[in-house]
Amino acid sequence: DVQLVESGGGSVQAGGSLTLSCASAGYTISTYYRVFCMGWFRQAPGKGREGVASIDARGVTQYADFVKGRFTISRDSSETTLYLQMDSLKPEDTAMYYCAAAGHCEALIQFPLGQGTQVTVS
Q1: What pLDDT score was predicted for residue 26?
Q2: In what order do the strands lie in the sheet with 95-102?
Q3: What H or E segment, with its residue span, contains residue 29?
């Protein structure tokens, strides 16, 4: 099973920024997985998965209320890489972040594509 590679996580102080990437091996993610929506979700220790941001095939983006105005989701023109720009990070953003793809955006938390990347905000 081919997986995508997530990167960009790390440890930062509150107020800092990180950019997460989710890269395929050169194939168009939405075409390969035959999905309409791609995005990111996170899971903190002892908590459930929560959707963070999504972008659909039309380019329409959606954000969870707790990241609106701070995070930006995007993809490259060839749609081989998905990004999550995270600014003004807060300690409560600490979690493992996963990229995901699904037939509809509401289902993203069920379909992680990689092993995740850890974000720690102190």
Answers
A1: 75
A2: 10-12, 117-121, 95-102, 37-43, 49-56, 61-63
A3: helix 29-33
